[in-house]
Fold each of these.
Amino acid sequence: MLYYWYLEPEDVYNDELSIGDECFEWWVALGGMIIDQNPMNGTLIVCGYLNDNYPHSAYPAVYLYAH
């Protein structure tokens, strides 16, 4: 499934990818930091939405954090 990814906290459109591809993209960009959906001790970096409405008409379906 593809999600529309928006950077946090700016809420700026980033791209449209699957969760795995988005995690890999951020893993490379952040030099090997762990990227996952676990908020414990992480920093929110992107939110994934099911549609590309802006302003958003629903809450994010996926949150990705860097550790």
Amino acid sequence: MSPARVITAVTAALLAVVAAATPAVASTAPDSASWPVDENALSTIEWIGLFIGGTALVYVVIWVLAAAVNAKSTHFVPEIPPATPKADHDIEATQRMPLPAAEGAPKH
């Protein structure tokens, strides 16, 4: 499966989940007067940094693990066959020799 098809399928699935959950979230949100305000809440910039930094950290960890496995593994290297020994006869002379049937054949 091509990467474009995978990305399209994942994006469609995520959009379907978000679209299905939006009405449910909108109907259950309390009014702002009774909503408790947390003084230690993260700002928008901190949330963005957390998501981008967390994603980057996951990529780096996976890359390091893959590099470690690749460095540790022994890759298959085929043996180079020895050079073919030179034949005892001259192959070009053999190809120039007339066939036995050609000697006694009648000429047209």
Amino acid sequence: METNNRELESKYHSKLNGDTLLVIGMLALLVGVEGFIIYRILSETWEIASGFFYLYVIFIGLIVSIEAIGCLRVRESIKAHMFEFKYYD
């Protein structure tokens, strides 16, 4: 949805860019924490876990993919409704 006020549009788009950075930061934090947890688990149980290491890789890939899709949907939702709900006012 577009508005006729260029100044308002500019303000909203700059705030959207800030929210995009927050969403990317949230995703990076989630992936970093999950990576650390998986690293700790694998380092402690390597003798047992080395036989099915590929399952850990698939699991981590699925988690990161689902989180990335969720973060992208949050951003798209904010972008789609930012003028309707006067999100940044």
